[in-house]
Design a protein that fits this description.
By secondary structure, this protein is an alpha/beta fold. The protein has two domains: 119 residues, Response regulator (Rossmann fold); 167 residues, Heat Shock Protein 90, CATH 3.30.565. Helix content is 39%, strand content 19%. It has a five-stranded parallel beta sheet, sandwiched between helices. Strands 6-7-8-10-9 form a five-stranded antiparallel beta sheet. The chain is globular, with a radius of gyration of 19 Å. The N and C termini lie far apart (45 Å). 35% of the residues are buried.
């Protein structure tokens, strides 16, 4: 049985734009991306980045926030005007975490912190590219939708997260519940919710394993693969209910795990926790959705989004 959480390799190298006024940072990121088989272009500031975007086709922009002249937030706004479907990943230092939150609200798909951990960079890149690769064509009839309800109960071993996240959120663009620039952020938030239900709910994986001295991310990935092929874990179901109207969307995602104490979650922007894996997905989700609620046991989450554009 194939892994439900694998990303597919691309035959054509993907092209990334890295924007930072520090040449050491851009060179380091460029080196790591090229070693991973990607094509990379660098820019020293926002204005140079926009020129590159006008000349080339990019699959992802990775940009620092703090830059002289046009900063990362201004660049993000300009990109969303010119190329609303182009995903932007923000790099931030501890002192600019509030700006990172603002970037999420402006349409950035995620943020990473300095010092840069490349396992986190590639994890985020894989999520973004998986979503882009599996994006389906929109149906013209979708814009006339009055209401729609869906109810799934999918075994963990058969749940392809990127496919399902895209399938669930496609109607939001069709009926203009959110604008195109924000759709990727909403899809990424649903992706994170499904990942949490699969990894931490049904597969009972501990995110601290990613930072452990016993192999880190490789140990986490190995344990995930093992449990995806273990019927005791893979047969557990994730239940997804969605209800969409012209003015709102609600998604309720429930796993068969033991739940967790959501009230004890530490804000990942708190001093000392910014580099920890705990709560980052929930933090991202809270920035995107208007309402986020858990059931008492913590194994079910309801997300509500209200119409943002007229």
């Amino acid at each position: 049985m194939p892994s439900a959480l694998h990303t597919t390799k691309h035959s054509v190298p993907l092209h990334f734009l890295v924007v930072d006024d520090n040449p050491t940072i851009t060179h380091l990121i460029e080196l790591q991306l090229c070693k991973a088989g990607y094509c990379c272009t660098t820019a020293a500031n926002g204005k140079e980045a926009l020129l590159q975007i006008g000349r080339n086709v990019f699959d992802l922009v990775i940009s620092d926030i703090s830059m002289p002249g046009m900063n990362g937030l201004e660049l993000l706004k300009a990109i969303k005007l010119k190329k609303p479907l182009l995903p932007v990943l923000i790099i931030t230092g501890h002192a600019t975490i509030e700006n990172a939150v603002e970037a999420l609200r402006l349409g950035a798909i995620n943020f990473i912190t300095k010092p840069i951990r490349f396992d986190k960079v590639f994890e985020t890149i894989n999520k973004v590219l998986d979503l882009n690769k599996r994006k389906n064509a929109l149906y013209t009839a979708g814009k006339y939708l009055i209401q729609e309800a869906r109810h799934f109960a999918i075994p963990t071993g058969e749940l392809y997260v990127s496919d399902l996240a895209t399938y669930l959120t496609d109607p939001l663009d069709q009926i203009a519940l959110v604008d195109t620039a924000c759709l990727k952020s909403v899809t990424m938030a649903i992706y994170e919710t499904l990942i949490n239900a699969v990894e931490h709910g049904n597969l009972e994986l501990d995110s601290t394993l990613k930072l452990s001295g016993r192999g880190g991310m490789a140990s986490f990935t190995g344990m995930k693969e093992k449990r995806l092929h273990d019927p005791a874990f893979a047969s557990r179901k994730v239940t997804i209910q969605s209800f969409i109207t012209a003015n709102m969307a609600q998604f309720t995602i429930t796993d068969e795990g033991s739940g967790f104490d959501y009230a004890a979650l530490v804000n990942p922007t708190t001093e000392g926790f910014i580099d920890k894996p705990h709560g980052r997905g929930i933090f991202l989700i809270r920035q995107i959705f208007d309402e986020v609620k858990f059931n008492d046991s913590g194994n079910s989450i309801s997300l509500v989004l209200h119409k943002k554009i007229s």
